[in-house]
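ok so heres the complex, two chains, lmk if somethin looks off
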Amino acid sequence: MSTTTADIFSRLARDYADETPLRLKVIDTYMVFCVAVGLAQFAYCLLVGTFPYNAFLAGFGSAVACFVFAANLRIKTNAKNASQFTGTAESAFAEFVFCHITLHFIVANFLG
Amino acid sequence: MKLATGYWKAAAAAVAMLSLGLVSGAIVAKDVNIKVVDRTGDKLFGKQLEYPATFDKVPKIQSTTPLSISFKAETADADTPLRLDQALVSFQHTATGNEVALPAKAVGKSGVFKMEITRKLFRKHFDSAPGKYNVALVLGSYTEGGLFYKLGDVFMAESSSKSQTSVASPGYGPKEEIRHRFAESQRMPNVVVSLVFSCAVVVPLVVLLAVWARLGVNVDNLQKEAAGSIAFLGLVAAYMSLAVAYWVGVKLFPTLAYALVLALPTFVTGRYALSKRIQKGI
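and the predicted structre for the whole thing:
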């Protein structure tokens, strides 16, 4: 049976929708949001220039860091990884919140 | 009447100090010799003066006809050679008022001082500013006072080579005015471009909330553990507000103090709310 690229992607989307828990879908959409915001800022930087550079670094760095924190939260809250991580999803969320608080103070300092 | 400048003021002050009796004695310039010779050594102008006489004729000075002035400094009462702390020959342009003061150097230990305008000095100070100059001796001694002795006028001729030299800065005169160059303002993008990309950054948030709503994300479980959850989320919101306040104007150390104050309640309420969620199986 020949499979096309469209078939592969449609099967991937179907399996994702069926098998992925709601909690992980919420985190995944948040990660896509972080990527979209980062791309928008990067496109603006390419089009217009880097001035003010510190503001661009703060905004783009914030988007990247949020993506990384969300990725870590997803890894820790995924039930398939329960054997590798001893903490609960709530403890992972608490770490996620702490990292975000620290990140936003750093971003506010760098924004200028 | 033109205001005195530079060393003319210093000389006036020295004379004033002398008149007040703040220094002893007085300086007298004797055997003042003024000579202008051409390149072959022939004397074009020569005059010997005794203080306070001046010379009437205005000799014309060029780079090829150096001017030399020699004199002897003595104290008025002791009539002995004097070691001067300051010996300058001042040239003040009659039209612009710019002043050039050239040092006179001691010749031996006999108390004789000599100043000569060499070709190099002429090109440096007078080439770009020809014209009539008032010549004066400005002498000073810490113990004997000062002397300001106007000798006469000389005419500094324009250079025949017409070389484009930059304006020579006087040895002891005013410097060129400093003109600050401020950084040019950055070229900002079009307002429409800025607004378009502002929307481009906000739209993903709207899309995210819409997708979450479609996925069924809600806050119903907050009611099962309202107090702890609302307190915890409120304190997290307080931290975000503190970050905004820090960006707007609050300084670093007050911000850290406020963050420290919020830290313990946030930790306590967060631990309580999340542990309750685990207990209740939310």
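quick notes: DSSP finds four helices and no strands in chain A. thats all i got rn
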